[in-house]
Design brief:
alpha/beta, 15-stranded parallel beta sheet, two-stranded antiparallel ribbon, 21 strands
Length: about 500
């Protein structure tokens, strides 16, 4: 019977009540609490589910003799805790895996928990800790919650003090196996403290901090486990080694710079040996070319957040021209309407090895694009390794003009073509041009949702017409080529025989 297997029972209970759900499931929680009282076989699995994640310290207080003064107040202890109280608290605390210490936590609760009298850690199974109090009085108690099982730690201080820095410096010995540390609001005052803590963690995968020093950056880069780094550029940053070699070339790097000068000064000191960059820069901040070799090994560049208030132009994307080894560029979720043919041609010449390129194809934009067929053709002529292309461009063709497509722009390697909400007026001519340029594409994908404005809805029918004719044109052209090849071959053979 499956109910005799604790793991199966716990899986069922997690389905009934999952604390990770965004909406608090009181009914599910009450149901599992009732199951915990049903029989001995259900008790432990149900309690494990109920106590796996806590959003405050109140449950620990209430289970060990504490109470609420009124319905909206925090739970507090109004009497001393005796041995029996500590043992009850420990029986539940050992089941906690995720804990959020809230802003409203009571300092007296911290003082009492610091007096935990039983052997071992207060929370021996804690894996994730979100520490929200920002007052310096709370930080000396941080070590009570940090143990060898802790994997993720997030701090949210608003202002830094000496007491907070001292608490952070001593973190590494308490939780040596930490693999995710987050402290986005760190400032120059905390830089040395956080850098010292980072030096003590040997298993880090993700680091999200403010400014850190060269030793910490070098240590992070040397870790085989490392995958993601977010940090800010400090005016106090000094560097003795010019190249920052990352053991994991696919590590994701995010750099925050408050001023153009600070970013420029940092770039002159450091070179990154990474292959993938996720851009989260303010595009009005820096519009110059990156220094030579700053990202000498960069192959992929991604912007994965949609911002409808920014319309990218050629000047904003000028830094991309520095990435000579770029193979993947994804700006699909951003409006690239003001990128022109000249810039795309320059990008093609600067990054001839690019394999995947996405420019504004993942949203329905109302802004008219400057990019035309000429820019697309120039890109195809110089980037012969392209296998996937998404581009928001002006696909309109004047009815009285015959568009001549150069043969050296034909791209049989491209099998995926996305056009976003590109404007179009002559489906037959567009189908003829695209079927010539992309003979291996089977379907052209647009991005015009049903709830889009009427002016975009009018283009849906036209792009669907292009899709209907596209395959026919490709087949006809292929058949014509094969027939022409056969006739030419026969003529050559006839001449040879004669």
């Amino acid at each position: 019977m499956h109910f005799r297997i604790p793991e199966v029972v716990q899986l069922i209970f997690e389905y009934v009540y999952n604390p990770d759900r965004k909406i608090e499931d009181n009914e599910g929680r009450i149901t599992v609490a009732g199951l915990a009282r049903t029989c001995q076989a259900f008790r432990d699995p149900a309690l494990d589910v109920l106590w796996a994640q806590l959003h405050s310290l109140d449950p620990l207080v209430l289970c060990s003799g504490g109470r609420r003064v009124n319905d909206n107040s925090q739970a507090v202890w109004e009497r001393p805790l005796y041995d029996a109280d500590w043992r009850i608290l420990a029986s539940y605390a050992k089941r906690v895996h995720i804990l959020t210490v809230s802003h409203q936590s009571d300092i007296s609760t911290m003082h009492l928990l610091n007096c935990f009298t039983l052997p071992g850690a207060l929370l021996p199974s804690l894996a994730v800790l979100y520490w929200l109090p920002d007052h310096e009085d709370f930080y000396p108690f941080l070590h009570c919650f940090c143990g060898p099982t802790l994997k993720t730690l997030a701090l949210l201080p608003v202002m830094w003090s000496v007491r907070q820095c001292v608490a952070v410096v001593s973190l590494a010995p308490s939780c040596p196996f930490l693999d995710h540390f987050s402290c986005f609001d760190a400032d120059d005052l905390s830089m040395q403290a956080i850098s010292e803590a980072v030096m003590g963690w040997k298993k880090l995968r993700v680091l999200e901090v403010g400014p850190i020093n060269e030793r910490a950056l070098t240590h992070v880069a040397s870790l085989q486990t490392f995958r993601s780094l977010h940090f800010s550029v400090s005016s106090e940053f000094t560097c003795t080694s010019h190249v920052l070699e990352f053991c994991s070339p696919r590590a994701l790097i995010e750099i925050l710079a408050l001023t153009p000068l600070s970013l420029e000064a940092f770039m002159q000191k450091v070179h990154f040996s990474i292959e993938c960059l996720h851009l989260h820069l303010c595009y009005s901040l820096y519009n110059d070319v990156f220094p030579h070799l700053f990202f000498s090994h960069l192959k992929a560049c991604v912007e994965d957040t949609s911002n409808e208030s920014i319309v990218l132009n050629s000047r904003m994307l000028n830094p991309l021209l520095s990435f000579k080894g770029l193979e993947h560029l994804n700006l699909g979720y951003l409006c690239t309407a003001h990128i022109d043919d000249a810039f795309l041609s320059e990008l093609a010449l600067s990054c001839p090895h690019i394999k995947e390129l996405y420019l504004g194809d993942e949203n329905a934009w109302l802004v008219a694009p400057l990019l035309t067929f000429d820019g697309v053709v120039s890109l195809l002529k110089h980037c012969r390794q392209l296998s996937a292309l998404g581009v928001f461009f002006d696909a309109t063709v004047e009815s009285d003009i015959v568009y001549a497509t150069p043969v050296d722009a034909v791209s049989p390697k491209i099998k995926t073509l996305l056009v976003g909400s590109s404007p179009i007026d002559e489906p037959v001519k567009v189908a003829a041009v695209l079927s010539f340029l992309f003979p291996s594409v089977t379907c052209i994908h647009h991005h015009i949702p049903q709830e889009s404005p009427n002016q975009l809805q009018a283009m849906v029918t036209k792009w669907e017409s292009v899709n209907k004719m596209f395959g026919i044109f490709v087949s006809a052209r292929k058949q014509s080529w094969e027939q022409g090849w056969a006739e030419g071959k026969a003529a050559v053979e006839k001449i040879t025989m004669a």
